[in-house]
Design a protein that fits this description.
The structure is a single chain. The chain is α/β, with parallel strands linked by helices. It has a single domain (about 1-105), classed as Rossmann fold. Helix content is about 45%, strand content about 15%. A 4-stranded parallel sheet has the order 2-1-3-4, sandwiched between helices. Strand 1 (about 1-5), helix 1 (about 15-30) and strand 2 form a beta-alpha-beta unit. Helix 3 runs parallel beside helix 4. The longest helix is centred in the N-terminal third of the chain and has 20 residues, at about 15-30. The protein is globular, with a radius of gyration of 13 Å.
Length: about 110
């Protein structure tokens, strides 16, 4: 299964929405090709308060549990990906657990 990694949190709600849309569009493209995909932004984030970063540690722990069932991570190199602590943590976990990592530049 492919786990889609991309930045999300930003103080500007428009930036968050743009990042969510890019992530979901990419996941949907993979799904249409018949891939098994998990995108945290597609399946979970919309159900929490987007204006609060207070649950950041919960969602990182949740995402890591999902990553355990994946064999590949696709990192979307969109605006903010290098600065994102969440992206860095997920990449680090993927490396430590020998997941295949693909860096996606054109989304």
């Amino acid at each position: 299964m492919i786990y889609v990694i991309s930045p999300f949190w930003h103080e500007d709600a428009d930036v968050r929405e743009k990042r969510r849309a890019i992530n979901i569009s990419y996941a949907d493209m993979l799904i249409k090709r018949g891939e098994m995909v998990f995108s945290p932004l597609k399946y979970s984030e919309k159900n929490i308060n987007s204006n609060s970063a207070s649950s950041e540690s919960y969602w990182l722990d949740f995402d890591i549990e999902i990553m355990r069932g994946c064999d590949t991570a696709h990192v979307l190199q969109i605006d903010g990906w290098k600065e994102s602590k969440g992206v860095a943590n997920e990449i680090d976990w993927a490396k430590k657990n020998n997941m295949e990592i693909k860096y996606i530049t054109h989304v």
